[in-house]
Design goal:
alpha/beta; Nitrilase/N-carbamoyl-D-aminoacid amidohydrolase; eight-stranded mixed sheet; globular
Length: 517
């Protein structure tokens, strides 16, 4: 029993120690071995023991969500740990009927399927997808341009399975297999890293980023349009010149609620148009709050009823504008479950009453249906990502396929305080840079603004909780990587294989009953 207790504690200790922002991602390659050993040792309460271990890991890496929402944090920790348990239960079942080798394969396939589900369903929470855990070690994962983060997950799972087999049978063959699986991907990554062409031959453009550092819990209560526009414009002018291509304001930088159809008549954007006349070649991209009316025949599942009898959707948006005004609007599509969107409200409409309010407008928001690309005067295409969308690799690649030459991330990372949360978010952005080979510029309100090059190198970082204005240089690209073109194909393949193995496991149980009946 003492050995089982140590195994239960050892796995979350290793996994937590190997997670960003620590530069110890190699620990993830062995982090699940204690739980696989626990399965060997356990006859009773296996699921409960593994669940407790996974819960400790979830707490160790994402405890900081508590500062945004204690209730949401508890629900997230309990639910995500339960979802992570399922691949271990599946492993135990398949192993029982088909042996350990097939069981380990089933574990890998089912875990990949679980992560793919987390990227695509309405309770999407891929924050702890294993491939994200290598974000602090970009030198080792340059091959993400071919596999995406699910390739990193596959590497971690296969390594754990082989180390587990080596522990049980430390023969020469198993030692060589472990060494090959651990070392070869690193060598491939280093070769890609050192042979990737430099950016100094192509055209470059300046991007000015405004980090206003306004308390996210108070900004919707204290700002008026005139004060807001004046503050942002004065900050931007510290760095602006005639050669600047873009200026970025963060998520919900402009807090006035504007009806989309008449946005250029609103006070905020009238003031911004006047200011931009001083910079005729400048393109502004800013976070914004917008809404849109429609009649009852066209309403969406997230629509709210207006006192006039009409329906309207509220959006967390980004807008692109110049001296002529706003010329396009993108509505955030990957919404935070429980905060910006209550899952499956068509079925569970009562859930809307439990939406978490983090300031501003609470309840389910509307979504865009297109990965819209914003263009500057020089036709530089930009992906205007908003906050949580950073962690959805395949979705980001849709912007790149639609013409984005650079990736901009507008975010507000102050909800969690000075914790690992905003550091995770920053590091995950470099995964999008590597996957798509695009420069990434982060514009934050209270987190860390920075620029990330195509190899995932971060530079020009701003300090936490300090106002700042920065100028970054970007080098647009138009090439499409294998991952950009094919997305999360590993997840799709795993989901199909999971279906086959699941049917096999049911058949195995039926065959076993016939044999022993």
């Amino acid at each position: 029993m003492k050995k089982q207790f140590l195994l239960i504690l050892l796995s979350p200790l290793i996994l937590t120690a190997g997670w960003p922002p620590f530069y110890t991602g190699f620990l993830l390659l062995v982090g699940f071995v204690p739980l696989l050993l626990l399965e060997q040792e356990t006859q009773k309460w296996f699921g409960l023991k593994v669940y407790f271990s996974l819960l400790l890991w979830n707490i160790g890496t994402t405890w900081w969500v508590w500062f945004a929402s204690p209730e949401g944090c508890i629900a997230m920790l309990l639910a995500n740990s339960g979802l992570m348990l399922l691949p271990f239960v599946f492993y135990r079942r398949v192993k029982k009927y088909f042996g350990m080798e097939t069981g380990l394969m089933a574990w890998i396939i089912s875990w990949l399927s679980m992560e793919y589900l987390h990227l695509n369903w309405e309770i999407a929470y891929p924050w702890l997808n294993l491939g994200n855990g290598l974000a602090a070690l970009p030198q080792t994962i340059q091959w993400y341009e071919y596999t995406g983060t699910l390739g990193g997950t596959l590497w971690i799972l296969v390594s754990n399975a082989l180390v587990f087999k080596l522990y049980l049978n430390p023969n020469k063959k198993n030692r060589w297999m472990v060494a090959s699986v651990v070392i070869v991907p690193v060598i491939i990554s280093l070769v890609i890293l050192f042979t990737y062409p430099a950016d100094n031959k192509g055209a470059s453009y300046k991007v000015v980023v405004v980090q206003p550092n306004i308390d996210p819990y108070q900004k919707f209560e204290t700002e008026d349009p005139k004060t807001e526009v004046n503050y942002f414009s004065k900050m931007a002018e510290k760095q602006l010149d005639s050669s600047t291509e873009f200026v970025l304001f963060p998520e919900t930088g402009m807090t006035e609620n504007c009806e989309q159809q008449y946005i250029n008549s609103s006070l905020t954007y009238t003031l911004l148009k006047e200011w931009l006349k001083k910079y005729p070649n400048l393109t502004l991209i800013s976070g914004s709050n917008t809404y849109r009316f429609f009649d009852s025949n066209n309403r969406t599942s997230t629509a709210r009823r207006h006192y006039s009898g009409k329906y309207y959707d509220v959006y967390n948006s980004s807008v692109v504008m110049n001296q002529e005004g706003v010329n396009d609007i993108y509505r955030k599509s990957k919404l935070v479950p429980g905060v910006e969107k209550m899952p499956y409200t068509k079925v569970f409409s009562f859930l809307e009453n439990y939406a978490i309010d983090l300031g501003g407008i609470s309840g389910s928001l509307g979504e865009d249906t297109v990965a819209r690309v914003f263009y500057s005067n020089h036709k530089i295409g930009a992906a205007p990502l908003i906050c949580y969308e950073t962690i959805f690799g395949e979705y980001v690649s849709e912007f790149v396929k639609n013409g984005a030459n650079v990736i901009f991330i507008l975010t507000n990372d102050g909800w969690w305080g000075d914790t690992p949360g905003y550091k995770h978010h920053k590091l995950y952005a470099r995964l999008r840079a590597i996957e798509n080979r695009r420069d990434v510029v982060r514009c934050t309100n209270t987190g860390t603004s920075c620029v990330i090059d195509k190899k995932g190198t971060i530079s020009g970082e701003t300090a936490w909780w300090h106002p700042a204005t920065m100028t970054y240089t970007i080098h647009p690209s138009s090439t499409l990587t294998f991952y950009t073109q094919h997305g999360d194909y590993l997840g799709k393949m795993a989901a199909w294989l999971f279906g086959i193995v699941f049917i096999m496991s049911i058949a195995g149980k039926s065959i076993s009953r016939k044999i022993y009946s």
